[in-house]
Amino acid sequence: MFKKTKYVTAVLALTLGLTACGAPAEEAPEESGVDEGIGAGEEAVDFEVVPEEGAELLLWTDGDEQLEWAELMAEKFEAEYGVPVQVEEVGQEDAPERLATDGPQGLAGDVFASTHDRIGRAISAGLVLENFWPEEYEEEFMEAAIDATSFDGELFGYPTGIETYALYYNTDLVDEAPETMDELIEVASELNEGSQFGFMYTPETLYFNYAFIGGYGGYVFGEDNTNVNDIGLNNEGAVQGVELLVNIRDELLPNMEMEDITDDVRTALFEGGDLAFDMNGPWAVRGYEQAGVNFNVAPLPLLDNGEAPTSFSGTRAFYVNAYTDYPDAAALLAKFITSEESLLEHYEIVGHLPPRLALVEHEDIQSNSISVGFLEQATHAVPMPNIPEMPLVWDPMEAAFTEVWNRDVDIQEALDRAVRTIEQAIEEQQQ
């Protein structure tokens, strides 16, 4: 059993106040063992979180290895708590939208997986319960994972994995990773010959370009990516970041249009031994290993201002459905599958880097140089904003990068236009 310490008002908001969160009053879950004789504003209350009598849970998660791991965790949870858990394959990208439609009907997973950048609307709509143990998670998990799965200062997620991109390098072509971007460009230019390329990434998307923009002082939204009235994608730092993009084009990829540099193209080049350096994420590891490429992974090289590139990070997490009939059992399941033991098994089966601080130094992870490379870059990463306005940012920025790359449009002009488009879209969304 787990101890949970909350103020009464916070507990009531979690367990009884679902009407304010958008759930019908008659569907509000039962109390979680709170002593009703203690009033709001008094000292913190200690009580045990135990599964509700007769609880049965539905867990939504991705397929393949993730599904295999989830089914194993479901068996272990039932063995410990006596609560049966049915596991259903629902992609983490689809889960928040499914929750909005299936939640009120009682058809959604009691616990579901989602990436942090897709959960903002569901949280703001009151479809997700807060994490029952925020202080414990803040102490035991990476700050980036906590920030990513929090909303308006409150923790909602139970993180399972953190990912960011870093620098892959083919060890048959180069002995070690460069320490600076200038060195990377110099070495890569020497390897550009015929059908062989020195360095490549997908330059059309803010997801990758933010490493440069943020490293020079640009940002998406102000106040830790929460203030939509303060957009920093056209400030001086952002311009410098895009200047590096142009330098990479001129020095390394002068004959390629933006549309020619796709994920499939660079993946095929790296798998075929024709690409020395690839800026990519951990999702590419298995494919490169299966292709027989000899490679390693290192943090992104330092910028010429001495700063590390601030790659975007994504955090995968489980969340508790606000419409669940069994909030205590659901919260316990989310906690159980994000325990140290469970996340180590998750790493071994699925391969996702665990955001638990205790596991970062685990010998199974530290002995894997590829994992270490990603973890080192993760210390410089910035969580993708999870607020509902973020989806309005991607397309205008992609348009700006494309016109700069393909048509040499003035960088400041292109970024100013993108920011105006974003501001207009946000204004329309808020009406």
Structure, explained:
By secondary structure, the chain is an alpha/beta fold. The chain folds into two domains: 2-163 and 314-382, Periplasmic binding protein-like II (D-Maltodextrin-Binding Protein, domain 2, 3-Layer(aba) Sandwich), CATH 3.40.190; 164-312 and 384-430, D-Maltodextrin-Binding Protein, domain 2 (3-Layer(aba) Sandwich). Helix content is 42%, strand content 18%. The chain is built from 19 helices and 17 strands. The protein has helices spanning 8-15, 64-81, 95-102, 120-124, 134-140, 143-148, 181-191, 206-215, 222-225, 236-252, 263-271, 285-290, 327-336, 340-349, 357-360, 363-366, 369-378, 394-407, 411-430, and strands at 2-6, 45-49, 57-61, 85-89, 111-115, 128-129, 150-151, 154-155, 158-164, 166-170, 197-200, 219-221, 227-232, 275-280, 295-298, 312-321, 382-383. Helix 2 links the parallel strand 3 and strand 4. Helix 18 (394-407) runs antiparallel to helix 19. The chain is globular.
